[in-house]
């Protein structure tokens, strides 16, 4: 049975850094909730911007149910060869509802100071327009429908990592969690 690790955190908190470390050190593979949205937006030739992904996400949930993403992500996870699969970008309790029923699941929250996260978001420029966003734009992004439940999910996480320090500190925290889970 696969061991599934869900990662949740606000924008640019370090979820991707945590994911890559677990992949490299423990041989995990990952599936990303947002990939489904990116695939649809690419196919429709709509810019992959945070706002477009949020609109599409809300529309899919409204029209196909709260568990549309969790059902799909379980199917994606089951296609992976590794016994450890990371769910990257958990946004709602419904994202993990089906996954929890499968067993062998932990939810890890990743947090960092807002100003640190803002600088990280601008630097990585993952979505169109990120590098040009003001701090106020960044704050507004976190109030949108797909982001508003993050703090509630972090409160329900099995473990919370503080990514306000250096990489070695984050890696140490990850090792403690993963070793206990395996």
Write the layout of secondary structure elements.
Elements: E1 3-8, H1 15-26, E2 29-32, H2 33-44, H3 50-64, H4 68-78, E3 84-88, H5 93-102, E4 105-111, H6 114-124, H7 135-141, H8 150-156, E5 159-162, H9 167-181
Parallel strand pairs: 1-3, 1-4, 2-3, 4-5
Helix pairs in contact: 2-3, 4-5
Key features?
globular; single chain; Rossmann fold; 182 residues; 5 strands; alpha/beta
Characterize the structure shown.
By secondary structure, the chain is an alpha/beta fold. It has one domain (3-181): 3-Layer(aba) Sandwich (Rossmann fold), CATH 3.40.50.300. The protein has 9 helices and 5 strands. The chain has a 5-stranded parallel beta sheet, with helices on both faces. The mean pLDDT is 87.
- Please write the string of helix (H) and strand (E) elements: EHEHHHEHEHHHEH
The CATH top-level class label: Alpha Beta
User: Looking at the structure, what is the overall shape?
Assistant: globular
CATH superfamily, called what? Answer: P-loop containing nucleotide triphosphate hydrolases
The CATH architecture is: 3-Layer(aba) Sandwich
Please give the alpha-carbon distance between the first and last residues: 12 Å
* Helix-strand category: alpha/beta
Can you tell me the CATH topology?
A: Rossmann fold
């Amino acid at each position: 049975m696969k061991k599934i690790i869900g990662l949740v955190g606000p924008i640019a908190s370090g979820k991707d850094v945590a994911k890559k470390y677990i992949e490299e050190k423990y041989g995990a593979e990952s599936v990303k909730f947002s990939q489904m949205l990116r695939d649809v937006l690419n196919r429709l030739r709509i810019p992959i911007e945070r706002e477009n992904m949020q609109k599409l996400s809300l529309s899919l949930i409204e029209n196909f149910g709260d568990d549309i993403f969790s059902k799909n992500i379980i199917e994606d996870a089951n296609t992976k060869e590794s016994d450890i699969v990371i769910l990257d970008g958990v946004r709602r309790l419904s994202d993990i509802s089906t996954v929890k029923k499968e067993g062998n699941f932990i939810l890890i929250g990743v947090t960092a100071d807002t100003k640190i996260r803002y600088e990280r978001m601008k630097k990585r420029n993952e979505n169109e327009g990120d590098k040009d966003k003001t701090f106020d734009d960044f704050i507004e992004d976190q109030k949108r429908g797909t982001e508003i439940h993050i703090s509630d999910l972090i409160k329900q996480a099995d473990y919370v990592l503080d990514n306000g320090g250096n990489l070695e500190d984050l890696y140490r925290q990850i090792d403690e969690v993963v070793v206990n889970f395996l």
